[in-house]
Write a structure and sequence with these properties.
With 137 residues, the chain is α+β, with helices and mostly antiparallel strands. The protein folds into 2 domains: 1-42; 46-132, mini-chromosome maintenance (MCM) complex, domain 2. It is built from 3 helices and 7 strands. The protein has helices at 2-42, 99-102, 127-132, and strands at residues 46-51, 54-60, 68-71, 80-84, 87-91, 112-115, 120-125. A 4-stranded antiparallel sheet has the order 2-1-7-6. Strands 3-4-5 form a 3-stranded antiparallel sheet, with no helix packed on it. Bound molecules: zinc ion. The site of zinc ion has 8 residues, from helix 2.
């Protein structure tokens, strides 16, 4: 009987040890994920304007938190880009379907504004992608 009791106690102690290790591991993972998230949040994406086949402009969204309107006619696109809070959309576009204007603001990876009639697109790339494409040189 005595042996059984001590055996059970030992089991409980080792269970506690396993639990403690799990809790520490979870906390560590949580902190690691948090630090990763804050790093990603501080690295803002790039908006890339392409007209036809050419890259016409590259805008770091981190530099475009103030409200700002750019005339894009100098790039061969009959419209304007409006920046707001690190996002961009097109407005006042001379375009038959106006689909591009209805797409609204973009700022996250894989988002884009496309104007087929004018063969123009604004695509969002992460800093890594922009660097890999040679857009930041
Ligand atoms: Zn359009």
């Amino acid at each position: 009987m005595q042996h059984d009791t001590s055996g059970r106690r030992l089991m409980k102690r080792s269970d506690l040890a396993v639990l403690a290790v799990l809790v520490i591991a979870c906390l560590g993972a949580l902190l690691w994920m948090r630090s990763r998230q804050s790093v990603q949040a501080s690295a803002e994406n790039y908006a890339v304007l392409t007209v036809g086949e050419e890259v016409a402009a590259v805008w770091p969204l981190a530099d475009h938190h103030a409200d700002e309107v750019l005339d894009l006619s100098e790039y061969g696109f009959p419209g304007k880009a409006q920046f707001h809070d690190g996002a961009v959309r097109v407005i006042e576009v001379d375009c038959p379907d106006k689909v591009c204007e209805s797409m609204g603001y973009v700022k996250d990876e894989f988002q884009s504004v496309v104007c087929l009639p004018n063969r123009t697109a604004i695509q969002i790339y992460t800093p890594e992608e922009a660097a890999n494409m040679g857009l930041l040189d």
